[in-house]
């Protein structure tokens, strides 16, 4: 399935031309050359296709690594005693 290449926006061309200008050593009077080179470079790069997720991957719950390895769930940490509770024990 072939999609027509969308035209790059003026801001993307300007940004690419700016980096080309920097790479060339910031020469004066070559702005049109950098602009056309940036435009050609952006038109030559095909757009990234959007990835599709599998329907099964979204609906299936993820298993935890410990459960998959046959390990039991870890015990919750014990609650820390407050200063008031510690002083009552003493």
Task: Give your account of this protein's structure.
It is a single chain. The chain is an all-alpha fold and 90 residues long. Helix content is 49%, strand content 0%. It has helices at residues 10-23, 31-44, 55-59, 65-68, 83-89. Helix 1 packs across helix 2 (31-44). The N and C termini lie far apart (78 Å). The model has no long low-confidence stretch (mean pLDDT 78).
| End-to-end Cα distance | 78 Å
Can you write the helix and strand succession as a string? HHHHH
- How does the major sheet shape up? none
Beta-strand percentage range: under 5%
Percentage of residues in helical conformation: 40-55%
Number of helices: 5
Structural class: mainly alpha
Query: What would the principal axes of the Cα set say about the shape?
Result: elongated
Count of β-strands: 0
Which stretches of 5+ consecutive residues score pLDDT under 50?
Answer: none
Mean pLDDT: 78
What is the radius of gyration computed over CA atoms, rounded to a whole number of angstroms? 30 Å
Organism: Salipiger profundus
Protein name: DUF2934 protein
InterPro entries: DUF2934 (IPR021327)
Pfam family, one: DUF2934
């Amino acid at each position: 399935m072939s999609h027509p290449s969308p035209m790059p926006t003026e801001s993307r061309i300007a940004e690419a031309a700016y980096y080309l200008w920097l790479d060339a050593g910031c020469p004066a009077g070559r702005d049109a050359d950098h602009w056309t080179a940036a435009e050609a470079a952006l038109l030559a790069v095909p757009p990234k296709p959007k990835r599709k997720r599998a329907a099964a991957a979204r609906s299936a719950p993820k298993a935890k690594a410990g459960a998959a390895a046959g390990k039991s769930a870890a015990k919750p940490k014990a609650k820390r005693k407050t200063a008031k509770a510690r002083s009552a024990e003493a």
